[in-house]
Amino acid sequence: MKYVDVLIDIADSRADHIYTYSVPPPVPEKELTGRRVLVEWGKKKREGYIIRERDFIEQDITHVKPVIKILDREPVFDSKMLELAAWIAQTYLCSLVQALRLIVPRAITGKKDKVVLPNVKEEEMLSSPASFLVNKYLPFFEELWQREEISLKEARKKLGKEVLELLAREGLILVAGVYAGYKPLPGGYVYRLAGFEVKELSALRKKAPRQAEVLALLMEKGEIAAEQLEKTFARSTIEALLNKGYIKKVKKDKKIFSAPFVLTEEQERAVEMIVSRLEEGYREFLLYGVTGSGKSEIYLRAAQACIEKGKKVMVLVPEIALTRHLVEMFALRIPGIAVMHSGMTRAERYEEWKRIKNGEASLVLGTRSAVFAPLSDLGLIIVDEEQETSYKQEETPRYHAVEVARRRAQMEDALLLLGSATPSLETFHRAMEGKSELIKLSRRIGNAVMPVIYIEDMRLNLKRGPKHNLFLSDFLYNKIEDNLKRGKQCILFLNRRGYAWLTVCTECGNIVLCPHCSVGMTYHQDIKRNLCHYCNFTAPVPSLCTRCGSRYLQQIGFGTQRLEEELKRLFPGARIKRLDIDISRKREEPRNILQAMQRGEIDILIGTQMIAKGFNFPSVSLVGIVDADGMLNLPDFRAGERAFQLIVQAAGRAGRGEIPGEVVIQTYQPDNLVINLAAKQDYMSFYLEEIRLRKILNYPPFTNILRLVVSDEEEKLCQAVINELADYIGEITDAKEERIEILGPAPCPIKRLRDRFRYQLMVKCENIMLLRSIGRFIIDNKERFPSKTRIEIDINPLMTM
DNA sequence: AGCACGCCGACT
DNA sequence: GTCGGCGTGCTC
Ligand SMILES: [Zn+2]
Ligand SMILES: [Zn+2]
């Protein structure tokens, strides 16, 4: 008898459930491990993952149930990916199921050969809460119990779609099917354009529209798999084109188009350093290069070299908006790239996943979750803008894609290439310690030169009495005016969306708060309402103060909307546009704005940090950072690092083309070290200063942090639970020799969020294993606390609001 | 995570 | 004497 260990697919954060089932004959010949199955678990039928095959069962097992149905024709994960899942579960304190769900796409659709199974036993039908339904359709159920399964088609004929859906919803029946597989394209032949002139196309459109269609398609895609083309077009159409010599059928070759760009000496050296280490086992590189130094071209060359050696490449980017730029660049020179990001529909992701699994993609490009792409034979993993916080998932499993990428590279003997203009302290520290090789690009490519950067003391602006308004210094005003006169473009950054900052009563100082969160509400001009930036609750601006009844409420501070309004008043002739999250929610608008910007149809672009990243506007010659202080005053030990990165990134938007750039940083603390180092673009000094502080204050990378957040609608309950957790951890601290530091318990910086109070506890300890075991213990003992009280556990958190 | 079993209070 | 609260233990 054949047996399998099945991991039951239920989201139990406390523990995994693995049980042995028998595989009734006929046992499939191919591998079972990694396939999904349907099993009866307890009273219910559930899906599970086969994680082991065996020919015997442990002696203490009395009953073994059979596998009801094997749901996959081939495995959806291999032993390496299972190992990776186990590592995720252990490292980030989640269950194996939660980790596997990252790796195996949830394909609700795409099941074939669907059948209906009974999900209630005959002898139990009377005790079922919906037994009247069983009685109502008794003949159907009797047949179902007897035959065990009925094809969905037949069942639909008997009862109709609606009734079946009802029965399924009530848990009386189960619709199961085999996950649709993916047909590989055999032979590996493709069609390409041959001797064909574009000008012939219009003539052909009239005479032979189908042929023209094929040609247009080939012009767009470059090449099309033979199977696919032959399936969609008639044989005669294709043959006619072949006979005319317009197209050719060729074996899909691995030849890479030669790169048209000439590398600088620095780039050449960087590429050589990486490429020479391909196939030499795991190794990590940090490509540290200023904005505009041509990192993307190095990624591309390294990727090409890797693919030439027959290995696959993974490229991670921080956000969807940045995928487009790299996709365009890579797709031009590397055939068969796959794209995966969270903006795609589930079906699109699944299709792409199957292509990758099938070995049809030589390069996968995507955001955070693409780190789990089912690539085998990985030779190189590239992480662009490695310092970006979006690589960390802010819900369980709270993994960090850079760490996962490192782990995969180690498992696959591949190279890890991290790129950044402002590396995270952790990453740069690794390079300083010799854990990775530092590759430095210090010059911008082409004729672009580093911008000139000015720090403007806003205290003077305040003292003099602002000529224009509070948030625009004379200096920046004049620079903008000059810039407009010269017909150049300008970008203004303000990292605060909305119109103002807060609504305040001028008589008693009361601030209008969100009724669901402990944060002030922000007025938004477009909707003419106050908005909570944390829970998106909106409310009309109150006409009277809720505390003292005063009519004098004021909108204080300024956001991008107010900045836009004021600039339009100050520079009435200028073409001014704004781009922030609120704008980007409108469908076409962001793209239109970016394109208009590229074409020089916008004079002043106002935006939040989203325009600081990635976009390359060659004719921007002035960048204004309106409020550099706003970024510095966050309650997080990484605030300085974030501010430095953001200022440098923003400054990097200036002077990317031929035009030399200027940057104006407005601040009330012109002597602040972070601002001054950012102004000098002096990463090295910033690093040395910041790492010194981290060492003194005992923060990462010199220690690890376990963060516990307890949340509940009742504050008392929160406090009780967090105190109990603190007591428990205190006991461990006393018992251990190691240096363990406990910060808190204390309310989170945002004390209430979506009607839940939040309290946190930070445990600092160099020994990460100890932190994990503390976290694991808390998970194992969760039932000791009220179940409605949420306990979240994060190892090395990035956000601590 | 579900679900059944089982032991105590309140209510027909 | 019965209905129902949720603590405890089990799921191959
Ligand atoms: Zn008031
Ligand atoms: Zn809110």
Automatic annotation (TrEMBL):
Its EC number is 5.6.2.4. Zn(2+) 2 binds at residues 514, 517, 532, 535. Keywords: ATP-binding, DNA replication, DNA-binding, Helicase, Hydrolase, Isomerase, Metal-binding, Nucleotide-binding, Primosome, Zinc. It catalyses: ATP + H2O = ADP + phosphate + H(+); Couples ATP hydrolysis with the unwinding of duplex DNA by translocating in the 3'-5' direction. The keyword Protein transport does not apply. Residues 530-692 form the Helicase C-terminal domain. Binds 2 zinc ions per subunit. The keyword Transmembrane helix does not apply. Residues 276-441 form the Helicase ATP-binding domain. PROSITE patterns: HELICASE_ATP_BIND_1 (PS51192), HELICASE_CTER (PS51194). GO terms for biological process: DNA recombination; DNA replication initiation; DNA replication, synthesis of primer; double-strand break repair. Zn(2+) 1 binds at residues 505, 508, 545, 548. It comes from the Bacteria. SUPFAM superfamilies: P-loop containing nucleoside triphosphate hydrolases. Its cofactor is Zn(2+). GO terms for molecular function: 3'-5' DNA helicase activity; ATP binding; ATP hydrolysis activity; DNA binding; zinc ion binding. Initiates the restart of stalled replication forks, which reloads the replicative helicase on sites other than the origin of replication. Recognizes and binds to abandoned replication forks and remodels them to uncover a helicase loading site. Promotes assembly of the primosome at these replication forks. Belongs to the helicase family. PriA subfamily. PANTHER family: PRIMOSOMAL PROTEIN N. This is Replication restart protein PriA.
